[in-house]
Amino acid sequence: MADDPAARVADPGALLPDAAKAPRTPRVLLVDDDSGDALIVTELFAEVGDITDVVHVQNLADAIVHQGDADCVLLDLNLPDADGLDGLTRLLGAEDHPAIIVLTGDVDEKRGRAAVAAGAEDFLVKDRIDGRSLTRAVQYAVERRRAEALDRQLHEARVHERENRRLGRGLLPTALLRDPAVTVTARYQPGARRLLLGGDFYDAVETDDGTLNLIIGDVSGHGPDEAAIGVSLRIAWRTLILAGMPAAHVLPLLDRVLATERHDPILFTTVAMVSVAADRSHLDLYLAGHPPPVLVDTGEAGGPTVPRLLPDHHLGVPLGVRLGTTWPAVEIPLPERWALLLYTDGLVEARDERGEVLWTDGLLELLGTQLGAVGPAWAENPDGALDALMTSVDERTPLRGDDRALALVAYAPSVSQQRMSWKHEPTPGSCAAVRRDLRDFLHSAGIDDDSTDDATMIASELASNAVDHARTPYRLTATLTDESLRLEVTDGSAAPPRLQALDVHAVRGRGLQMVDDLATGWSFHHHDEGKTVVADLPVTRR
């Protein structure tokens, strides 16, 4: 199961600047070349006393210099360097201009309407105002302008939120999992307060053969272009995995995708890719310039919880650096119960007030302290574990500029899960041994006769194919849970099994058809040893 990190976005109101939330006493810029009129206006404000911060300039040039510090401009239309609506138009042309009220001796109502139509908040005639009406006009104009700014910023914040959600669905998808023992929990945080999502991405796909495939990547740079590249790479990766592409070939193909899709030839992407075997006993790790994941060994129930970095001695260059590069895998054994923390470098490159970087050593220290405090119980609440880790990182290294993505993948098999494996030579008699061994195993586990008959028939047919066609030693593995059984037959041949059309008169060739009828699903995959055929079926206990 997996959560939806794309839904974890900021409240739009939290993105608004503080200045847009709290009103204050207006600052007024008076633009009038008549010093006598300017003195009268100042005295009118003084009569009421609500507005005390008034700056007087006598021409438009000075007004343009000072308007950025004002909340409201009182503008005369007859200035030495601007006449009529020209001065108003020039002040309105400034980005984020303050409220502007035309205050003039002109009593022409037509001119007043033209000024308001051009963008002025009001049109006042000097001889027709008193201190209270002037103060009220300025206060209303400032609040209207502030409300407009707040409206605009709220709209931008909502657009930002929708864009984050849209890109988040592409960068941080819902994992494709079938194994109930596997959970994926993810988090994403943009690096700067108002930035859109960057190019950090992750994905998790369990293929039909039971292999668990994981990836986390970080596209260099920030913004929608980098996010689009991240989405392209993630979708390409998922497509290749679902199409059955061998893991060793995936990163070179993603390298080619990046080279054709990027808008900047120097853009690169770091990647960590993990392929966990169907029996969850080991993983293959591929690193392309990316920090290694953290493996958490929970030990036996009630035992210690120990985090450690996976090895990075086969660390390769990032994608996009050198076309034609290959990335070797490192095979790593896994404990019975484990978790993997995959992350982008935004988590470990944050700094404290002294400029010290957290890096992987600090991450292990924080994670070890956290897990040591709660013990194996952390696996019961992966959301809380990730939130607590991110809080600890922020407290220790609060200075962060980069995005960060995290995915916690936990494997906690049922206590009742049982697994057995048998090796056989490719002899006709080995099929009888397969049926006998599997029947004894299922009977001892309390599986009823009908389920046991179906299972032994499937196993016998898969073993017969290995004997007749592969002609190599083969291995049968049975994994039993409360309600299901998985049978895996591994042999040394790369030749794929072929399901043939049913022919009731044929002496041979009906084995896979029988498997297809009895199993809830079956598949096969290739590997270095040859291939493995996998069949799943439900079981009932006596």
From TrEMBL:
The keyword Hydrolase applies. Signal peptide: none annotated. It holds the Pfam family HATPase_c_2. Residues 27-141 form the Response regulatory domain. InterPro entries: Bact_Sigma-Reg (IPR052016), CheY-like_superfamily (IPR011006), HATPase_C_sf (IPR036890), HATPase_dom (IPR003594), PPM-type-like_dom_sf (IPR036457), PPM-type_phosphatase-like_dom (IPR001932), Sig_transdc_resp-reg_receiver (IPR001789). SMART domains: PP2C_SIG, REC. Gene3D superfamilies: 3.40.50.2300, Histidine kinase-like ATPase, C-terminal domain (3.30.565.10), PPM-type phosphatase domain (3.60.40.10). CDD domains: HATPase_RsbW-like, REC. Keywords: Hydrolase, Phosphoprotein. It comes from the Bacteria. The modification 4-aspartylphosphate is found at residue 76. This is Response regulatory domain-containing protein. It comes from Pseudonocardia ailaonensis.
